[in-house]
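Lab manual, section 2.4: Encoding a predicted structure.

Procedure: take the sequence of the chain (387 residues), apply the prediction step described in section 2.3, and record the output as structure tokens. A sample record is shown.
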Amino acid sequence: MKVTLVRARAIDPAVNKVAKTLSENGHDVKLLVWDRQHTLGTEEGDGYTIRKFNLKAPYDKFTVLFYLPIWWIYEFFFLLKDKCNVMHACDLDTLIPAIAARFIKRVPLCYTIYDFYASNLPDGRFPQLRKLTRSLVASVERFGIRFTDVLFLVDESRYEDVRGARIKRVAYIHNSPPDYFEVEGEHESKERTGIAMFYAGVISKSRGLEHVIKVIKDLDNITLILAGTGPDKDLLENQAAGEQGEIQYIGWIPYKEVIKRTLAADVLFAFYSPGFPPSKWASSNKLFEAMMCGKPIIVSDGSSIANIVREENCGLVVPYGDVAAIREAVLKLKNDSQLRQTLGQNGRRAYESRYSWRIMERRLVDSYQQLSSQVSKKAENHKSRAQ
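Recorded output:
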């Protein structure tokens, strides 16, 4: 089939994995992205074509609402002119134009929810208005789901977000990385006196980075390497090295570099503020990257990833913002190489048996095969009526 994926973000390994997988399984794939910061330098993906909308706009800020109508108009007319026979929208900021185009073109529509939009709205100053706005946005997204043919969720726990929606078919595609374990070089950490901790992702205060920095500053023989960008990147750009520990902020790096640094690290971490609504259902790719690379991870309690870490015994769980507990967990892993190895091996086994991209890939391909059969049957019926 000719598939067009739509994502309102230019750099997203998750949607690129989907595009690559569909392409490798015989589909003609096109990816339309909104390149808000002009960061995407190529229009050729790994076996698929990339089309860019270059209107400059912010990420994860309220002011993006002023730019959304322009993006929606562009997306709508792009999909109308495009010769795809399957559309695949990602998140609510692409769904509405896709539904409109679907009614006109009469082609199937797939929909992936990476982040439930209502939960990601900013808090604002007025609690009642915030509650009303989130309820309205949630209702719009749940209503829109009824017009989709396949709904993809990144975690089973995310079903709570869409409960009550009219869902034709749902598939769970965890945000797992492809298996780079055998192809990216060294699997073990390099010999060093202490340990190296690594984080790559959104640079935001809600990710608990300040708490980790505070811990590392007071410890010796620990290197903390931070990568990524986000609304609070100034927090790290101006961060001086600690008195004993070493803190390095290296900015945004390509995804393959993220994997290489994950393989070279000793400990990963992923914290989500419980005061931020999406944290409860966070399906962190950092967890699955740690599992794939066979590395232990420290995560904050009260989230779905904490449940996985406990179930698989692949890391340590601490209360969010508890500096003393974080310090204890870091020292525990620093001083016990055997524990690091055991937790990492547990994660690797869980990745191979339950969370690998190979498993997720099969779910994705099976869903599209069912959709392809429906499209073919519909085409045959249309041909028969025409005759």
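Check your result against the sample. The two ends are 24 Å apart (CA to CA).
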